[in-house]
Amino acid sequence: MRYVSFRRTDGTASYGRIEGDQIVDLGAAPGAPVDLKSAIAAQALASLSGKARVALADALLLPVIPNPGKILCVGHNYESHRQETGRAKVAHPSIFTRFADTLVADGQPIVRPRASTDLDYEAELAVVIGRGGRAIAAGDALDHVAGYACFNDASVRDWQWHTTQFAPGKNFPATGGFGPWLVSPDEAGDLLGVRVVSRLNGTVMQDQPVGEMIFSIADIIAYVSAFTPLSPGDVIATGTPGGVGAKRQPPVWMKAGDRIEIDIGPIGTLTNRIIDEQ
């Protein structure tokens, strides 16, 4: 199944299940949880049904989970990216955080801030937690996954590199593309051979299979949940392949008018235009 968060034509927010070219408005069902995160927490998605439908083409999509409690990101999780950055091999995932107010949906613009022109793309597979927990064993970790989505961990590189702490470059407003939808694990299938691809203005910039992550999805969930409890709707961005703009010669920075796509096969394609901050 595929699920979206969206805004109805009257401006109210809702969520639904995609059927063909339509969205079944699950948020309109009697007694439905208030949003997709709440429906995941209540384990209600499979039982919800609705009569109201919205054409997918007419819907204003929201970030898959507009209000995650946590967004945890993994750095340098593909060998090709580790090598291009010159980072040493490590025994544990490199974790940093994003804020929920940095997220933008499929079709919405990513904003290049006034403070910098060094805006880079990062194609990533995002994991949305379905069943929370603390100290989750790697062998049980995938049972805690509600689904997967595309993520663009767009980075303001000079601010990221001010110090060894990544947070400033990862948290400018409207820089985290997240969408277009949540794909359930059964529909996603075996992801190991699925390729994580970015295309800038139609040119492939990154292309590597999920199975070449240094730390697997299960291992990441186990590691993260050892130091912080995970809750339904929390998001983990699992890292980007090599080919980022900062490490090209000359560097390739996204600019106003550019179109960036994150394509992860059965998970979908996330598309955003770049605009300058006004």
UniProtKB/TrEMBL annotation:
InterPro entries: FAH, Fumarylacetoacetase-like_C, Fumarylacetoacetase_C_sf
Residue ranges of every copy of the Fumarylacetoacetase-like C-terminal domain listed in the record: 70-274
Key words, A-Z: Hydrolase, Metal-binding
Alphabetical list of Gene3D superfamilies matching this protein: Fumarylacetoacetase-like, C-terminal domain
Gene Ontology MF terms: hydrolase activity
Keyword check for Metal-binding: yes
Pfam short name (any one): FAA_hydrolase
Domain of life: Bacteria
Protein's UniProt keywords contain Hydrolase: yes
Family classification: Belongs to the FAH family.
Protein name: Fumarylacetoacetate hydrolase family protein
Phylogenetic placement of the source organism: Bacteria, Pseudomonadati, Pseudomonadota, Alphaproteobacteria, Sphingomonadales
